[in-house]
Amino acid sequence: MSKSWAKGSTRAWRRTRAQVLARDGHRCQLKLPGCTTVATHVHHVRGKQHGDDEAYLVASCEHCNLSTGDVSGHDPAPEPRTRW
After folding, report:
1. Nearest CA to 41 among 51, 53, 32, 29?
2. What residues does each domain of the chain span?
3. At 60, phi and psi to the nearest 5?
4. Which of 48, 30, 72, 32 is closest to 16 using CA atoms?
């Protein structure tokens, strides 16, 4: 695992993400205003509390995924990326 993904990606997640993107044809399923249609992200439809079950995941473009945020109503507190 690369250092940049030390707290967010595993082999299992990368495999699941690839399967969801392929299943949805790499097309954004959220289609919010400003959508770029090309899916490069995977969105947790019911929030991350349901885990990485493919039934609750959809392909999304970066714009739609970042615009939506955590649908459970509480985004995690920001963590500093560097120590000063």
Report:
1. 29
2. 10-68
3. -150, 155
4. 48
Which amino acid, residue 28?
C
Question: Can you tell me which residue has the tokens 């790499």?
Answer: 26
pLDDT tens string 28-74: 999 999 999 999 999 998 877 777 889 999 999 999 998 887 666 65
Can you say how many angstroms the Cα of residue 22 is from the centroid of all Cα atoms in its chain? 14
Cβ neighbours of 53 (radius 10 Å): 11
Q: Which of 15, 19, 9, 13 is nearest to 52 (CA)?
A: 13
83 pLDDT above the threshold of 70: no
- Kindly tell me if the per-residue pLDDT of 3 is higher than 80: no
The model's pTM? 0.72
